[in-house]
Model the fold of this input.
Amino acid sequence: MRAASPLGDNDRQRLLTGSHHDPHALLGAHLVRDGVLFRALRPYARAVTVSVTADGPRARLRADGDGLFSGVLPLTAVPDYQLLVAYDDAETLVHDPYRFLPALGELDLHLIGEGRHEELWRALGAQPMTHHKVAGTRFTVWAPNARGVRVTGDFCHWDGTGFPMRSLGSSGVWELFVPGVGEGALYKFEITRPDGGRTLRADPMARRTECPPATASVVHASHHDWRDGDWMARRDGGRVHELPFSVYEVHLPSWRPGLTYRQLAEQLPAYVRDLGFTHVELMPVAEHPFGGSWGYQVTGFYAPTARLGTPDDFKYLVDALHRAGIGVLVDWVPAHFPRDAWALAAFDGQPLYEPSDPLRAAHPDWGTLEFDYGRTEVRNFLVANAVYWCEEFHIDGLRVDAVASMLYLDYSREPGQWTPNAHGGRENLDAVAFLQEMNATVYRRCPGVVTIAEESTAWDGVTRSTHHVGPSGFGGLGFGLKWNMGWMHDSLGYVAHEPVHRKYHHHEMTFSMVYAYSENYVLPISHDEVVHGKRALVSKMPGDWWQQRADHRAYLGFMWAHPGKQLLFMGQEFAQGAEWSERHGPDWWLLDPSYSAAPDHRGVRDLVRDLNRVYTATPPLWQRDTQPEGFTWVEGDGHEDNVFAFLRFDAEGSPLLAVSNFSPVVRHAYRVGVPDTVPLWREVLNTDDERYGGGGVLNPEPLKAEPTAAHGRPASLLPVLPPLATIWLRPA
Done:
């Protein structure tokens, strides 16, 4: 072994301080004029020996100080070799990370640079693999402003000095294959900022994380064996707009506090299936540091929260729901991210995921940062993330949070706090382009998946195809469905009034039909409506406990019959009176048989079950949800009586008649106009049924249509309308 030429002071300093862009040029094995030069960086090592083959000759490298070891062997080619690293208390034989070519291909780098890598999670992050017949993990991270990047973790006692990564050219990607590191290893990236300072960051692409408040990323490979093939085959051929779609919204950590994903898989599918909901919507499951954000401040966009288990455990839950016949929607949050110093904010020392303008970057409502939708790599990060949840976790739909805050440059900003777009307008053109690309990509790659916008303004074309330009000059955003926030606000306002005052607010229940077919809508009674002093749904209703429950039931009956899909937040299915809290979840004790009022709550839950059962079996309630021909008012101006009546029709013209009486009096023989093509009608649902806790004012016998004109129709019925109740009638 001969001495090697010493490193130049500049290279040595950059290497030791984590500021070198190409450590592979200095470390590893390299042909030189008189042999092969070996150089290793092993901090705290007592000695490093080159082992040319597993049982071949060994040569001890010379110590150059600061953990550097080097030497030249008289060889004519770089051999296969390993390093025998001796410490004070042990020695270990390891493969040298710096003898490997990059484990990331040129096509991956090209697609990353173009912002078109639709499977980005396969290129960036920590990928366990076998590289040149050696098992290990490829670490890759996008940090274009960094002077240097090192990977560190529990495999090196959190000292990354010995694991500097190489820059892969103009892509901004840094890479290192570390032999011997496998699944379960904890890691982070130590980034040298442009100013020379260092920052320790979790992996933005981590597919698994430590359980908060710990913040390390975890090397992960999935081993879940999916058993939902039948579900996926059926889903791929479905059209959400023409199918039953009723959603039970769930905050997983608090639905049954303390349960893991796998324990939830034993309870949640059975509960949801029993109630007849077609889908669950999970409030954000991506990793987040603060539980009080309910998951809406995400730091680990590619990792299901470790609070409830591993990513494979979450797949087990989705699998169980699918095998129970239940679709899975997840809340997805591409509108903003928190400022935690170990996460995305100023990731490589400069604004990267967020815009460079601090005013533009700051989200005005939540103290978070907005994404820079105009940067191709950031847009790629988010588009690929949407695809990731659908493909890797078999998610059936993404409900996109806070879309309005993305679309408008002046959202929650005063004059002077925002800059107009290139056309002088207030629209965020980059966000529009991102949402269009996201929707188009998801629908192209993931047949049967639906995207749903939580969008609270009158933006034109939220659920219009991206290639169809509307009056505003924009193509549609391309969502499949949109939350109908106007209906939610107006209808809840109406039922909160005392019945004697409701006649002055009648339009709040009818106005939704003015715009019902402008978009494809979901009717949401979500978590947002039962927190922060807004009161639970039943507690919004006026009157005593009987009246509150009656109004609650009548409202649900009206909602399930109204055009649009339905969403109900957990706890509201059994008329929980208290607001929801993530600390303890729904008040399940209300259903305990030992509680005297339990029958009241069980009755409401029985109603929800029957609403879903009849709804699913009745095509007029969903088959033409997005077609004006599927709805017509019968009585839309019954303000003096607080009565609403309308007809729903399926594709064959078969009707359902829904009549709601939001007054506390029985209305006997209330004449309602109907088509003369149906001679006999029967009551298929009545929210006043004693089984639901009502007074039992029913229409037990079929109702015969009389040849008496009413409401502009040649025939009419004379049903009895129970107080504070909704009835559904079908052809007998």
Summary: The longest strand covers residues 134-142.
